[in-house]
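User: These chains co-purify. Model them together.
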Amino acid sequence: MTGTDQPILETRALSKRFSIGTRFSSEGRRVVHAVDNVSLTVRRGETVGLVGESGCGKSTLARCLVRLYDITDGQLLFDGDDITAKSLAELRPVRRRLQMVFQDPSASLNPRRRVGDLVAEPLRVHAKLTSAGIRERVAELFDLVGLLPDHVGRYPHEFSGGQRQRVGIARAIALNPDLVVLDEPVSALDVSVQAQIVNLLADLQDKLKLTYIFIAHDLSVVRQVSTRIAVMYLGSIVEEGPSEEVFSAPAHPYSQALISAVPVVETTPSGRRKRIILSGDVPSPLKPPAGCRFHPRCPVAKDRCRTERPALVEHKSGRKVACHFPASV
Amino acid sequence: MAALAIFLLIVFACLSAPLYARWAGVDPFLSTLDAVITIDGQDVPVMEQSTEGLGLGYTPLGPTWRLGNYFLGADNQGRDVMARMLYGGLNSLLISSAATVLTLILGTAAGLIAGYFGGVTDTVLSRFLDILWAFPIYLLAISLSIVTIAEGISIGPITIESGSLWLPVIIIGIVYVPYVARPIRGQVLALRNSEFVMAAINLGVPGPRILWRDILPNITTTLIVFVPLMMALNMLTESALSFLSIGVQPPDASWGTIIQDGQALLYTRPLVALAPGIAIAVSVMALNVFGDGLRDALDPRSKVRLGRD
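Assistant: Joint model of the two components:
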């Protein structure tokens, strides 16, 4: 893991806007700013955690990163290669190296195909293998993710949620990708199963030298797996930095509130933390507030925050915060 | 299941039409005005000279209720109505099932393409189907039949002669395409945004393969449900066209043409028109009941309904 290498994935001011309604509907055409001006750099071998509450654009960003959505603005570079505007056919070789695991394994596996067939699909499309070679590779992958060889012929509904997610992971790593985008891979699972999947992902990262972008709203999971985290609020990144530093000393008022909400097992009464409760709701991404997006709910907002939007700037080596008045880091 | 049994009984009866004709020793396509048959040792002419008025015209033989011997009587050409019923049913069934296959293939293809590719493809295809849909089915079918019935169709190397049974098959097959394409398109649209299709796109699976391997297997239940319901609709349409003499052409028979033959004999021999009418009603009802049952069994939450909502 050398930090000076070319980043495996880089976004430059990436934005995704959805139009809803038409010129003829009562409110006219409106635009949802789902992802707004995100610049993120992911280096080989690291795990970048992407956190934020529901609806902040994490999943949209994930789908932009693998080009399941077209990008409205900005640039997306994969291993130095600009893939912002590549067509489906041009993307095909990129897809071998850039994979995704979806949140809900019962929705992301075709209910009418056997799991062995599902895992073999990427091999059939990309790899020039004989059918015996494919069978062999599928067996290898099943072993790698902890499924039994005789599971190959079963249908997805015959599995538990955790096993299904293992199938989803096997499919994603079938082609030995460089980067895997994990879109809330454990949110749909029971807590005990979550730990198994998280451990499996960590093992696979070691064995296959994978880079992860790990999206979750469960901060304790993210903290456990990530080397670096980025906090999102209303489509933008508000804070970014090494995982432990951000968790122990969050600089942005939103990160502070978010991290204070993580339940912890109190071991000593002296360690009692103050819970920051935010007032109000997340504003609609249809009409984001002027100035700093967070100002209507921010406990430390001043006049400047209402008019001027803070940029994501580096305050300390590796720590970036988008706030005019960050807590000292 | 009882409905299916009734329908299958009709199918087997019709399939045995050539056997019945040979056993009864009648040619259902040849007019036999001067034939004489023997019933209970008595010779009875098939066509009876009218005794009223000026003594002109003939009244065909009424039902004898003897299987193999003008069971349902004769029609105005002196032909065995029972044998014609079976042959006609065979034609009706063949045409409606071939048309069903045609409708399902065209409708599924249109629905898959429109739903999956979206954008301009969807707009053009959907508007074209809307135009088809905008015509009353029978008006469209009748117009198409009238245009093609005299000359047949000749597109490139494919030539269909004017008397061919393929003509009603193609016409009926085409007019019902929007009925199938619409619901299929809706389903494909929903499936296209499902996560497993997203996952397949993300794996770099080419579009046609996604359609074939991921989407098509998920709409097969809908297609299966469509089969009996479309069959029933097609049978009705086929009978209507044949009744108007723009479907099956004489001397070939179909239930529709037999009703037409019976029209002139409605006062003297009502059974000639009544029998095929009953056959149509029973088959269509059986198919509809079976289709509804099939839908409930396969997909209780399905919203597929034939006809316009």
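Chain A has a mean pLDDT of 87.
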